[in-house]
Design a protein that fits this description.
Number of helices: 2
Strand content: over 45%
Mean pLDDT: 79
Largest sheet: 12 strands, antiparallel, barrel
Distance between the termini: 45 Å
Order of helices and strands: HEEEEEEEEEEEEH
Structural class: alpha+beta
Oligomer: single chain
Strand order of the largest sheet: 1-2-3-4-5-6-7-8-9-10-11-12
Shape: globular
Length: 179
């Protein structure tokens, strides 16, 4: 087993096996750019397609074949600090809203249409936070797992929808950098 294998094994021991870790870029995409979300093996698993629309900025999360999975849109007519995540059919899957702002702690509420709501809390600006459902961790976001600048990891617990969790992390990143 090589160094990478042992390091991976230690990471899995530390975090409890079964969770999936994804690598995302900070300040995700300037609208008009594309980029890949990779898993911890370096495989391209989802593509973020930054489409510039006339009315609103849109990020589209696609599978490797280019099939649209989720769409992130800022509703210009809506309350500021709110973004919606829609499915390919245009139906709202979740609404992310900035809930609490203090100098070092921020919280976002995620209203999930057909499921239990999520809460994002921790040090959002530094990408060290948890995504929880009813007090239980469903995902963790950290910059510590990767040594690459402007990169952070999203570890999704087993049984959770990684696409929704990654979309939530992308929304939080986008809403935080807008300031």
């Amino acid at each position: 087993m090589g160094l990478r294998g042992r390091r991976q094994e230690r990471r899995e021991d530390r975090r409890g096996g079964g969770a999936r870790t994804f690598r995302m870029r900070q300040k995700l995409v300037a609208i008009g750019d594309d980029y890949w979300i990779e898993d911890d093996q370096g495989q391209r698993v989802y593509k973020v397609n930054g489409k510039a629309m006339r009315i609103r900025d849109t990020l589209i999360l696609e599978d490797p074949d280019g099939t649209e999975l989720l769409k992130i849109q800022e509703k210009k007519v809506r309350v500021r600090d709110t973004m919606e995540i829609e499915d390919a059919g245009g139906d709202t899957v979740a609404t992310v809203k900035k809930a609490l702002i203090t100098p070092l702690r921020e919280r976002f509420d995620v209203n999930v249409e057909n499921g239990e709501d999520l809460e994002v809390k921790g040090n959002i600006v530094d990408h060290e936070y948890k995504i929880e459902r009813g007090g239980d961790k469903v995902a963790e976001v950290s910059k510590k797992w990767f040594r690459v600048a402007d990169t952070y990891g999203v570890e999704v617990e087993p049984g959770q929808d990684p696409v929704l969790i990654l979309a939530v992390a992308a929304v939080v990143d986008t809403m935080t950098q807008d300031r």
